[in-house]
Design goal:
The structure is a homodimer of 343-residue chains. By secondary structure, chain A is of the alpha/beta class. Helices cover 25% and strands 26% of the residues of chain A. Chain A folds into two domains: 4-132 and 312-341, Quinone Oxidoreductase, Chain A, domain 1; 136-287, NAD(P)-binding Rossmann-like Domain (Rossmann fold, 3-Layer(aba) Sandwich), CATH 3.40.50.720. Chain A is built from nine helices and 15 strands. In chain A, strand 11 (227-232), helix 6 (237-245) and strand 12 form a beta-alpha-beta unit. In chain A, helix 2 crosses helix 3 (167-176), helix 2 packs across helix 8 and helix 5 (212-222) packs across helix 6 (237-245). The mean pLDDT of chain A is 94. The A-B interface holds A 56, 62-64, 232, 235, 239, 248, 254-257, 260, 265-272, 274-285, 288 and B 56, 62-64, 232, 235, 239, 248, 254-257, 260, 265-272, 274-285, 288. Strand 13 (280-283) of chain A pairs antiparallel with strand 13 (280-283) of chain B.
């Protein structure tokens, strides 16, 4: 009797907000060893990563990546265990990081150029961290902070979605570099966590200040010397308020604009401030900077292994929970890195 | 009988649009040699430079420079001749570039740190060019193009206010570097000049397309391969349209936002494109980059002297014409570098 692989496909494109109807659960058999081709590896996924960028891929619009094909398994980062291998570099029992997608098992053509499958060492680092602080979100934080913001000790760095997988790393790295670090997060629990657990100097609760002027006032109080570096994960009202607090020669790393994923207009109110304050505003996508991966993951891995870099996870159970968990992530219902546990 | 110096003061701050009432003409006596202190030089101005940045200085708002003090002579670049000197480096007859302001004569404390007074060589370069292509506007163009946009041959570079003192240099420099160069200018005469005289590949007349969609369509036709570099002198509708045409990894040098000087809101419609297309958007002010001046002016001066860099001037006559000429500049009535001839 063959094992069943549960998979989630992109069934349709969202009109405005994404919904569970955009996804479809299907089943397929898991292949046996003699059904694998040379170079193929069968991986059983332990964790699936859910990330905001996936929402952008669901749209059929010009973006940095091709739109996700309809009727195919939702793409996504995964960690798991090699069960079967016809590739000389992998043996059953290896723990691996890959892009296995929203499914319980994946057959990976490990020889094909561009297909990612890396062995990971879980001696000192938990497996799930390779999807978070020591994975793509962590490297994203590292890149935007060190390559774009390039903060100097004593400067003020602000990060939105501060309790999230990326934001939490940005703040802790900046703090370790001697900066004053201010987070923006939604709700008192997240703000407390960011300050008390992660060691940020302050955190502004945007949900407590839905009016733009009130939010600006709270941000101003938290940044008495202005803002030198901003790591953007959100866009909208928060970006506008931050722009008004930027110091001369400030740097803004544009990593995410989650506020605009549903297609609503999200203008920047005062772009002339880019000139007035001689700002540098730069968008980036970490997957285009693989050259920094070794340096970044060495730093991040060491900090996680030694307890210097803390993180928190929201873990949904079972592949069927992925769509709801993903929609919750887009609304900020997660607290820390959003994962789906599959085993 | 002493000589009279006619001066124009900033009399009041504009409420919205600037008007002639914001300026005041006054007279003062020109000092004699024994009235000069040690280190002072008396310069008779031949030309006064009028530049858009002056409008920003008239406001009492936070900007990159202190607001211009009320009741003092309007600041501005000038070229002229040394009449009297109590400074060992200057003798009567020297032609000099300085920041003499809106007046016919200036007493310059040439020893005081931060006060600019440079001898200029008019053998092969016309005196007025030191206020234009070989002066601050030229270096502004050089800096934004070479330090921010950094164009590669074959890329498409767009510049707004293309027939102006800065834009005309941006386009000609980019063209000399092998780029496809597209200007944006107001009216058929300016567009023809930009293409026929300055050698741009195309020019889009924004006055012929007041509707944003029509302007976008015209810009799209002129940039079939998208835009890799944009030199911004204007802001508003033009910036929004350009943003939609930017290629991945495009660079935008934010030099001027003349459309917003009167205080009207000027939002950027789609800042998420900075992320989607991994753009670098950077504001700059040339006076903060004096280190490039020697290299830039050597290139620009050589190109002007050899006829490779063409320019055009709008020349108003007499100090009393300065306010009207300045207000016209803000509305795009000038054609090329706006000067006031004082002698």
């Amino acid at each position: 009797m063959s094992i069943i692989n549960h998979q989630i496909l992109l069934a349709s494109r969202p009109q405005g907000e994404a919904s569970v109807d955009n996804f479809k659960l299907v089943e397929s058999p898991v292949p046996t060893l003699d059904q694998l081709a040379d170079g193929q590896v069968l991986v059983r996924h332990h964790y699936l990563s859910l990330d905001p960028y996936m929402r952008g891929r669901m749209n059929d619009s010009k973006s940095y990546a091709e739109p996700h094909a309809l009727g195919t398994v939702m793409m996504g980062g995964t960690v798991g265990e090699v069960l079967l291998s016809k590739h000389p570099k992998f043996v059953p029992g290896d723990m691996v990081l890959g892009m296995g997608g929203w499914q319980e098992y994946a057959v990976v053509d490990a020889n094909v150029r561009g297909v990612m499958l890396h062995k990971v060492d879980t001696t000192h680092i938990p497996l799930s961290a390779y999807l978070g602080s020591v994975g793509m979100p962590g490297v994203t934080a590292w890149y935007g902070l060190n390559k774009i913001i390039q903060p100097k000790a004593g400067e003020t760095v602000v990060v939105s979605a501060a309790s999230g997988a990326v934001g939490s790393v940005v703040g802790q790295l900046a703090k370790a570099q001697g900066c004053r670090v201010v987070g923006v997060a939604g709700g008192p629990d997240k703000c407390r966590y960011v300050v008390d657990e992660l060691g940020f100097d302050a955190c502004v609760d945007y949900k407590a200040h839905p009016d733009p002027r009130a939010f600006y006032k709270a941000l101003k109080e938290a940044t008495p010397e202005g803002i030198d570096g901003y790591f953007e994960n959100v866009g909208g009202m928060i970006l506008d308020a931050v722009m008004l607090r930027m110091n001369a020669f400030g740097r803004m790393a544009m990593c995410g604009m989650i506020a605009g994923y549903n297609g609503e207009p999200m203008p920047l109110q005062n772009p002339a401030l880019i000139l007035v304050n001689r700002l540098k505003v730069e968008g980036f996508i970490v997957s285009e900077h693989t050259e920094v991966w070794p340096e970044a993951t060495l730093t991040l891995g060491t900090m996680v292994a030694t307890g210097q870099l803390k993180f928190r996870e929201s873990v949904a159970q079972g592949i069927k929970s992925a769509p709801e968990a993903f929609l919750g992530l887009l609304k900020g219902h997660n607290f820390g890195k959003q994962l789906v546990k599959l085993i």
